[in-house]
Amino acid sequence: MKLLSLHMFIFLLSAFAINRPMPDEFLGKWVKVGASCKSKTSLLIKEKTITLINDSDIQEFGNLDLCLTCQGGGMRYSGIVLWVFADFSKEKGFPFTVQLNADEEKGISIIEFEKNNLKLEERFPFDKVKLRKCK
Description:
Shape: globular
Largest sheet: 9 strands, antiparallel
Low-confidence stretches: 1-6, 8-17
Number of domains: 1
Helix content: 10-25%
Number of helices: 2
Number of strands: 9
Strand order of the largest sheet: 4-3-2-1-9-8-7-6-5
């Protein structure tokens, strides 16, 4: 029940999400904290897409909705976390979310896969794992 409530909360907050280009500071390749930037497992963030990469398994997602107030639960939030909902639609929801500057930690992101028929959590081994941006 708690998990359902969290997903409903995020879905309702997504009403504050906006479809605009990704801020420059987040563009680029992201790998697990401690991993080399040459890692074959990564997240690639571009202006209007996010690509999941695990060696030769590659899947790109567009239709990114950015939410500047989702972390704090409303319009009064003034922290640095940016939530991104990939391939968002009100009918289908979203396959995953990315928290950039996760938990108010600058330069760290966390991706969380939704349970669905894409089976992303099985294909890409970074569900709920801290990622860092390569320079």
